[in-house]
Amino acid sequence: MSFLTDSLVAVLTLYISFTNSLALQITDLISNEPETETAITIEAEVTTDDQSLLATIPSRIRSIPDLLQNNAAYQQAAVTAATDQSEPTTTNPLDAIVNIFCTFRTDEFVKTTTGTGFFIDADGVIMTNAHVAQFLLLASADTTNNAECIVRNGNPASPKYTASLLYIPPAWVQENASILNDAIPMGTGERDYALLYVNASFDGSILPDSFPALPFDSELLSTRSKNSNVVAAGYPAGELLLQGSTVDLIPRAATTSISELYTFGSNRADVFSIRGSVVGAEGASGGPVLNAEGDVIGMISTRGDDSIDGAGSLRAITLSHIHRTILEETGFGLEDSLGGNLTLRSEVFAATLTPFLIRILENAQ
Fold first, then answer.
1. Which pLDDT band, with edges at 50, 70 and 90, does 246 fall under?
2. Is residue 206 pLDDT above 60, yes or no?
3. Per-residue pLDDT at 95
4. What is the DSSP letter of 202?
5. Which range, of 15-29, 274-288, 293-307, averages the lowest pLDDT?
6. Separation between Cα atoms, residue 105 and residue 99, nearest integer Å
7. Per-residue confidence band for 180, with pLDDT thresholds at 50, 70 and 90
8. Predicted TM-score of the model (pTM)
9. Sign of the Cα pseudo-torsion (66, 70, 71, 73, in order)
C-alpha cells in the first residue's frame, strides 16, 4: 500500500486503545438503561412501469457490514438523536454550502483536497461526499497533527469552523479501502456520502445558535422528473487547482435540468445526471441539488458525461438513496440520523468504526 495508507494504519493503531476504552465506558454507562427495540423497515422495491425505465449502473457493494446495528453504544446514541431534530433555516443554497479544505503533510509531500458540503441540520450537521470526508478518518485519529480539515464558507471562501466525522457508510469504506489515497477518487457515487458536525469555530469565537440548514426530500424520485429544472450549488475549484491557493474560491449556483436517472440495481432512482453548468468542476462534489420547491433531492458525487449533457455536467446521488442505505446499515433513516448529542455520537462512531477500518486496511495490503 502507499505511504498514506500505511500512515493511516499506524495512527489508527495508536488510536484504537483509546476508542476501545471509550466504547466500553459508554456501554457500561448505558447498561442499566432499558433496552430499546428498533424496527427496521426497508422500502419495498418499486416495480411500476415508471421506475422500470431507469438506466442501470452496476452495484459495487458486495456486503453490508452490520457492526453499527450490533453495537449497543451506537444504537443508544442513535435513539437519542432520533428524538432531537431541528427545522430547516434557509432556502438559499448559497447560504448553506461550505467548502471543506483538507491538508495532509509528510516529510515528502503536502497533499490538499477541496470539496463542497451543505448544512442539512441547523445544529451544525453537514452532508458531503464520503470521498471528501475520508480525510477526517485520518484527521480524527492523527496524533502528529499532519492531517487537518477546515470548513470554510462565504464569498470568497474563508476559514470558519472545524468539524468532526459523524457518519460515513462502513460499506463504502469496505469497498474503497484500497483506493482511499487516490489523487483523483473515481467511483459511481454509490453510498458516497458522509455526515460531519461543526465542533468549534476556526478563530475560537462562540458558535452560532443555529446554522443555515436546507430542507430536504428523501422520497423516491420519479422518472417523471426527467427534464425538470433543478438548482445545483457548490464551490467549483477549477481555477484554484490550475493556478494554486492564491485564487479565491467563489460559491456558485446555477439552474440546470435532470437529463437521466439511474439505479444501482435497486429498481429505485439512486443517481441522476444534470446538464452542464458553471458549477460542474472538481470541488463541487458534495454540493446540493434542489428541486423547484427548494428541497434538496440530491448531492453532487461525480462528473457527468460532457459529450451528452454539455460541459460541466454532473451526477448526483439521490437523498432517497442516502435514506435507504443509511437505514440498511444503522437501522435509522436519514432524518433520524441527525441531531442528538453530536459529540457523543461522533465518539461512539469512531470507537465502533476504527477497529473495522484497521482490519480492512490491513487486509487490503
1. low
2. yes
3. 97
4. T
5. 15-29
6. 20
7. low
8. 0.83
9. positive
**Per-residue cell: 111:** 497533499
170 and 352 in contact (C-beta within 8 Å)? no
Beta-bridge mates of residue 296: 216, 290
Rounded Cα gap, residues 22 and 221, in angstroms: 40
Q: What is the CA radius of gyration of the chain?
A: 19
- Among 47-61, 95-109, 267-281, the range scoring the smallest mean pLDDT is 47-61
For the CA atoms of 55, 190, 267, 321, the dihedral, rounded to the nearest 10 degrees, stands at -120
**DSSP run (H or E) holding 165:** strand 158-167
Residue 82 pLDDT = 63
**Does 11 have pLDDT greater than 60?**
no
The answer to whether 230 and 258 have CB atoms below 8 angstroms apart is: yes
Q: Rounded CA gap, 200 and 205, in Å?
A: 8
Q: CA 313, CA 84: separation in Å to the nearest integer? A: 37
Amino acid sitting at position 78: A
What are 262's three cell numbers?
Answer: 439511474
Handedness of CA 322, 326, 331, 337 (dihedral sign): negative
Q: Round to whole Å and give the CA distance between 293 and 175.
A: 35
State the sign of the Cα–Cα–Cα–Cα dihedral 17, 82, 92, 262.
positive
Q: How far apart are CA 147 and CA 221, in angstroms?
A: 38
Structural domains in the chain, sorted by start: 93-364 (2.40.10.120)
d(CA 5, CA 181): 7
* Residue type (1 letter), 81: A
Length of the chain: 365
